[in-house]
Design a protein that fits this description.
- The protein is 37% helix and 22% strand.
- By secondary structure, it is of the alpha/beta class.
- The strands form two sheets. Strands 2-3-1-4-5-6 form a six-stranded mixed beta sheet, sandwiched between helices. The protein has a three-stranded mixed beta sheet with strand order 7-8-9.
- Strand 5, helix 4 and strand 6 form a beta-alpha-beta unit.
- Helix 6 crosses helix 9.
- The longest helix is centred in the C-terminal third of the chain and has 18 residues.
- The structure holds guanosine-5'-triphosphate and magnesium ion.
- Magnesium ion binds next to helix 1.
Amino acid sequence: MHKSGFITIVGRPNVGKSTLLNALIGQKIAIMSPKPQTTRHRITGVLSTADYQMIFVDTPGMHKGKDLLNKNIDKLAVSSLKDVDMVLFVVDRAKTAAEAFVMEYFKGLKKPIFLVINKIDELKNKAEIDELIMSYLGSYEFDGYFPVSAKDLTHIDKIKETLLNYLPEGPKYFPPDMKSDQSETVMMSELIREKILYFTEQEIPHAVAVVIESIYNNQELNQVDVSALIVVERSTQKQILIGRGGEKMKHIGTEARKEINKVLDTKIHLTLWVKVKKDWRNRPSDLKAFGFGE
Ligand SMILES: Nc1nc2c(ncn2[C@@H]2O[C@H](COP(=O)(O)OP(=O)(O)OP(=O)(O)O)[C@@H](O)[C@H]2O)c(=O)[nH]1
Ligand SMILES: [Mg+2]
């Protein structure tokens, strides 16, 4: 009997959902960063064996977003709850109003929902972990809970074992060698955005979109020439991103190139451009052009 099913990963921004997805699949599929609201798309990761297929759906962190981009993003996470067989609700030690906001959506969902207490490497002792678990079990009847560290890969197998018990009989939805639904082009733009998130502060991370403009297989130099456009909202942001003498952009470009080489196993030459597009996060046509919205 072959088992398969869809499992969505939801929770507040920055709790480690994408890190957990990567840990479950065993390779980098979703970008991760210390900045909240890193994930902007629904990202599918597939874990296949001869006997089963678990299809994990990483979602953007749920919170009450104000602009059009964030409203679209929130819808993604909410709709994913309806479409799947099971839910992993990820939290860390910071219990906020956003957790209650997410749990509101669990009401009436007739499917297994598991609590994942992530970042236990940051928690000092067992009593602290137990207290956190109890505070959640008191407000919702979860089907199980897992204290884990997605970063250190601690107890990740326990999640898989339990999910396998609950996984229904089903077909192979994806070819066995397929790990993700993201194209290489999307992955490249995401890895560039990841480096921007790491090396910029304050409003820049949220104001950025990355679009791959061209990919050329340069056989002469045995490399792939990639040209990417970084879109920001204001000229001041553009200046910060470029940095004095172009230093910042150069650094981001180098780090992104190295990461793309590693993750996609492709030698690339990367050219980055920065362009200002005022208020793109609130323009439906821009959102569409940058890969968001319907
Ligand atoms: N100490 C520790 N940090 C972790 C762990 N898992 C994730 N992190 C860190 O938490 C931060 C956020 O991780 P992400 O995986 O990007 O979080 P996310 O929930 O996907 O965030 P959004 O996409 O913004 O909703 C990163 O700096 C991670 O390195 C963990 O187990 N332990
Ligand atoms: Mg994420």
